[in-house]
Amino acid sequence: MITRRSILVVPTVVWAGIFFFIPLGLLIFYSFGQIDIFTFDVTWGWTFENYQRIIDPLYFKPIMRGVGISLLATSMCLVIGFPVALWMSRLSGIAQSLLLVAVMVPFWASFVVRTYALVNLLSDGGPVADALQAVGVGNGAPGIMYTPLAVAIGIVYSYLPLMILPLFVALERIDPSLLQASADLGASSFRGFRRVTLPLAAPGIVAGCVLVGIPATGEYVIPAILGGGKTLLVGNVIADQFLKLGDYPFGSALAVALMLALMAVLVIARSRLRNAEDVA
Amino acid sequence: MRRPSLVAVIAITVVTLLYAPIVLVIINSFNADKLLVAWGGFTTEWYSEALSDERVRNAFMTSIKVALLSTAFSLVIAITAAMWTRRALAGRRRLFDATTFLRIILPETVFALGLFLLFARYDIPLGIPAIVIGHVVFNSAYATIIIQARFSTMDTTLESAAADLGAPPWRVFRRVTLPLILPAVIAASLLVFSFSFDDVVTSLFLGGTNAETLPVLLLGMIRLHVTPEVNAIGVMVMLTTTALFAVAAGVISIRSAAGARASAKQGRAT
Q: Are B27 and B161 members of one domain?
């Protein structure tokens, strides 16, 4: 039934329908099509060929490499972000607000510029190369630009606040008396951390990993700047199919596969979150 | 005094490292040494070069146009949507919120390429309108969530009173609803404007050769290793977006403080 109130939802339905859901449907539709490599005409054959090509080592290897870099970056974010969030949760009042702002401000700076800022640091003869040479690791001081590590560092640098915030929210909620109790009962501070803090922080860990991991998988700009076209994430592999090679059906199949994989991750994360809340 | 804990030391190091690259960009934007390998003296040459570069100016104007248009469309969509969800049935509300969430969480690369496919299929030219269409998809979702949050802290008493006193719906909206949600609307506009101004992926895929926004131009310059000017443009862009975000954060915190005070007052009254 169309009531006068329903009119209010029309702009969203129209915009999201035409410019979000139809394009996604089109991706699914194209992913079953075939393309003539000479004329670029797309024909419909309801073929699974495009999906089979994903498993072809020629494509599967770089895709898994991209997934690996995203996972590496997400775990680096967690390891680096956790101490920051933990310290933030132990502070109070103005100090806490200041630290929160200090973590957020670089996040407000332009995305391209922030990623570009790392180029100066990571390239040959830059401070990082100098430091590595000083320690005696990097012989002849080649920078780490255009390596998977550079791309992972770029992701960490850009997405760290998205990890720290949910961790902080989860850690903040933990009642300090629980840690006190575990200490009184003779647990070492490490044991207290492992048996009390970590399980109670689980919802924050899951949320942070989802918030960082999902955009990191589809990331396009960071590898374009720090990977030098050699180190690609899944997002670049897909975009190249459309923009450079013009193979829409295969690009669509990759995009659909990525969507399905991310949906699966989201569903699992949600059920984990629910379990964690039940425990807590 | 207690010695600083390991956690504190790590945290301070991490936060310091967050600023190091940005500080280096700011320093290099004033560095007269063209190759930026050493400090070659102070100069504002790169800034005047950037400001007099016609391509930079055009890209800046394109970015402003895109951001203004996408903010306007996003606000209309978000305000109407948030008003609808206030009285929507629970099931429909959940479905609606899920689609809002989906527009934010799905990697931009995927849906921007879907739109690219749509435009290619129907021969719709790429350019400013195409970029705006893409930005509104996710920006309207962010704006919807911010305005929904504002609505969730207020009830419909004042609006019902206005309606009872004979005000037609449009007048109720303009004289009662809009002033009440204004802080959220301002915060949403600032955030959405800067998201649009800062966006690379959608602007790159949907701009084609017809429209080049500032971040897309910067990406191209970085790939071609045009360094000194990039630093200067980068500092100016950073200042713009940081200022917008700071104002937005200020508006949001004032709003939540006001909201807390209002609900405290209500609590006392009942």
A: no
